[in-house]
From TrEMBL:
GO terms for molecular function: phosphatase activity. CDD domains: HP_PGM_like. It comes from Microlunatus flavus. Gene3D superfamilies: Phosphoglycerate mutase-like. This is Probable phosphoglycerate mutase.
Length: 212
């Protein structure tokens, strides 16, 4: 059994998104805009007739998933491997604050290097590998030909997508932003069995503009 379509859906807006704080795995809830975004997006995603709904176990992804539960009846299955990158001691900090305490790491991050987010955090390549493993298992256990919605996070979604496609790590940035409550659609090639990107960073027109 294997799904034919994976929909990677980023959570809605939080106050830390709008203030530019590093969120990581801090358990921050959606704000009022984020809740509206989730409802707007859920109405569109429901038309894809998903058979399963999976989610990161953090509050902002569970709240986003709950909007799809309301219109489809699907209960989310939680998987902590779908969490955002662990940023360790950078949680809650803005870029200039990180630059002040770890200038070398911040400069390397700005250059696009695979930097560990603080001494206790993760690298993007580590996140990509764990999310890709989760996505592969989720797809393999799904009913044959099914559509599965996976609620995750911005960086985690892009890095996991890259590794699931078998692309080199350094290409993960080429996919561009995955905005709040936007999604990417992956289709499995029936003959070859590989995944390919059909759509990226899709949002219904009603979804409000956000700071990513």
């Amino acid at each position: 059994m294997t799904a034919d379509r994976l929909v990677l859906w980023r959570h809605g807006q939080t106050d830390w998104n709008t203030s530019g704080r590093f969120q990581g795995q801090a358990d921050i809830p959606l704000n009022a805009v984020g809740l509206d975004q989730a409802r707007d997006a859920a109405r569109v995603l429901a038309t894809l007739e998903p058979a399963q709904l999976w989610s990161s176990d953090l509050t902002r992804t569970r709240q986003t998933s709950a909007a799809l539960t309301e219109v489809t009846g699907l209960e989310p299955r939680l998987d902590e491997r779908l969490r955002e990158v662990n940023v360790g001691t950078w949680e809650g900090l803005r870029g200039p604050e990180i630059d002040a305490v770890e200038p070398e790491a911040w400069a390397a991050l700005r250059r696009g290097e695979d930097v560990r987010r603080s001494p206790t955090g993760e690298t993007v390549s580590e996140v990509g590998e764990r999310v890709a493993r989760a996505l592969a298992e989720i797809a393999e256990q799904a009913p044959d030909g099914a559509t599965v919605v996976v609620t995750t996070h911005g960086l985690a979604g892009r890095a996991g997508l890259c590794r699931l496609l078998g692309l080199p790590f350094d290409l993960w940035r080429t996919f561009g932003s995955l905005d709040n409550c936007a999604w990417s659609v992956l289709h499995r090639h029936r003959a070859g069995g590989y995944w390919r990107v059909a759509e990226h960073n899709v949002r219904p027109l009603a979804v409000r503009e956000t700071i990513s």
